[in-house]
């Protein structure tokens, strides 16, 4: 169910389904599993595309904190969250913060993925 909901969340129209999947995961005590952070990130990206920058930022920060807690700082999924958050912050015209986030994303990708 989690994998299917995550795939569905990639669709712009899947906002309600993604939120429902997050709620289910939290209710059945999966809140500390890695896929909850992925669902948070995907929902944040959906909200960003819809123009809800404040809520997108909140979810992306939650996803980033969870990814860091579970995976440490040097992980590709942490870089992915940083990149998504940088885009939201950039669209909110907070350029210095966006640059800092984007640079951290790039640094992790270079270190971990050797890009």
Task: Give an account of the 3D structure.
The radius of gyration is 14 Å and the shape is flat. The longest helix has 19 residues, at about 55-70. It has 6 helices and no strands. With about 120 residues, it is mainly α. The N and C termini lie far apart (about 35 Å). Helix content is about 80%, strand content about 0%.
Quick summary:
The chain is an all-alpha fold and 115 residues long.
Fraction of residues in helix = over 70%
Number of strands: 0
Average residue-wise pLDDT:
84
Give the N-terminus to C-terminus distance in angstroms: 33 Å
Shape: flat
Strand residues, percent: under 5%
Relevant terms:
single chain, 115 residues, mainly alpha, 79% helix, flat
Architecture blueprint of SSEs:
Layout: H1 2-8, H2 15-27, H3 34-50, H4 53-71, H5 76-91, H6 95-113
Helix pairs in contact: 1-2, 1-3, 2-3, 3-4, 3-5, 4-5, 5-6
